[in-house]
Write a structure and sequence with these properties.
The protein is mainly beta. It has one helix and six strands. The strands form three sheets. It has a two-stranded antiparallel ribbon. Strand 5 and strand 6 form a beta hairpin.
């Protein structure tokens, strides 16, 4: 099961990982298939990715 999580202290995210600030609203109930902010290791920047598990034979996000 992918589960759910929250991102609510957005300001601390920028400070902790030393990344440029962008406008991100707090998210309190992030479920599979939501687009969430992630920090890449290569460029130390924030980008968005889809949270969840996608199977190779099906494009639907599942909660497994």
């Amino acid at each position: 099961m992918c589960g759910r999580f929250s991102i609510y202290e957005v300001g601390r995210l920028f400070e902790r990982f030393n990344v440029p600030e962008i406008n991100i609203e707090p998210m309190y109930n992030i479920a599979p298939a939501y687009n969430i902010p992630i920090i890449t290791n290569e460029k130390q920047e924030i980008t968005f990715a889809r949270w969840g598990l996608t199977l190779p034979w099906n494009d639907t996000i599942i909660n497994a």
